[in-house]
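Hi there, hope your week has been kind to you so far. Thanks so much in advance, here it is.
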Amino acid sequence: MKGKVISNISNLYYVEANDKTYECNARGKLKDEGIVVGDIVDFNENDNIIEKIENRINYIKRPKVSNITQIVCVLSAKHPKPDLLMLDKQLAYAEYVGVKSAIVINKIDLDQKKVEEIKEIYKDIGYPIVTTNAKDKQGIEELNKILENNINVFAGNSGVGKSTLLNDIYGEEITKSGLISNKNKRGKNTTTNVSLYKIKENEYIADTPGFSTFDISEIESNKLAEYFKEFREPAKECEYADCRHIKEENCGIRKAVQKREISESRYQNFIKIYEDLKDKEEHKW
């Protein structure tokens, strides 16, 4: 039988097939290869042993999850402060993996001005933007439309409201909501394992611990600009084929920033991410 791994707890794999969930083990070789949530597997329904992992469409190393179709990047208007550098990393990584992405701005009641500032930066790039107030279920209907027919991973710093949003969408408490530390206004991560929750046919959502600090070092620094969507056309105007888009003269991207065709915020985050990737490449060994 073929099914989808929806959870992995203490080396037991919970596999969904034909609207049932099977508690499965795996043969030693497959355990060594590493079965992850999202995998499509062949298993023997008589002894509940996983026999084979089907080829993956995509795979994210940390947190370990496969075959996703959309990353939903969640940030809050306030408490914690919106982390646009993290958002730009997530958006670039989604482009790299080849999946769709959407932006959710939660807690909009706390700082409407900040909400408008964020929307202004991202509205023309082509990413869907949904504004929500999860506590009051505001914006949930619009968010549901974006999730349809996708295997969705929710990503964002702890405390931004991912768990409350997931509970609103699912209709019951599936995750324990994180608490905000009064001392530093930063979230405390409460989700400890990746699980997929089925909303309806061909639609799943997942909360992923560690996605706030996921590693994008798989991206080569000299190719980073390819994964900033609005950089692609201006990059064709660069004088040099190996332009890094940092200090070079006659750089199409820098000219677009000067003309305000690319936001200064996105460009500065690009430089930070580029320098971080470059530093890791130089100190790899």
